[in-house]
Amino acid sequence: MKPEEKARQKIDELLKAAGWEVQDVHQLNLGASLGVAVREFPLKSGSANYLLFVDRQAVGVVEAKPEGTTLSGVADQSEKYLAAFPDNLPHIAEPLPFAYESTGIETYFRDLRDPEPRSRRVFSFHRPETLGEWCS
Fold first, then answer.
1. Is the pTM of this model over 0.90?
2. Binning pLDDT at 50, 70 and 90, where does residue 67 land?
3. Would you say the C-alpha torsion 109, 119, 42, 65 has a positive or negative sign?
4. CATH of 3-135, one of 3.40.50.300, 3.10.450.10, 3.90.1570.30, 3.50.50.60
5. β-strands 35-43, 46-54: how paired?
6. How far apart are CA 22 and CA 68, in angstroms?
């Protein structure tokens, strides 16, 4: 198994533990749960490793990297995905407000609505209910 595949396997487990329904883009069912994390979602600037939906609206992305990657350098990549979603995609804001970068071992989170947004280490992914509350 390649290092990035291993990281994605761990990220899948972490997302599920936080209450997210993890799906492949070809099996998309946004009604399956309040929070749906869709793997390899095609965007204007490439495919996001995970696009996060809360109540059928896109709210953020997760950029997966192999263990050992310095995540502080990945923020620019995930930020491109936050603004590059298809025009017909239901979304909470433009750009999407929430970005995660994760190796499955460590995870960083950024809320672009902060006055000075910067990535911060978190112990787990936020629950869909939490992100939904922050969006309302």
1. yes
2. very high
3. negative
4. 3.90.1570.30
5. antiparallel
6. 24
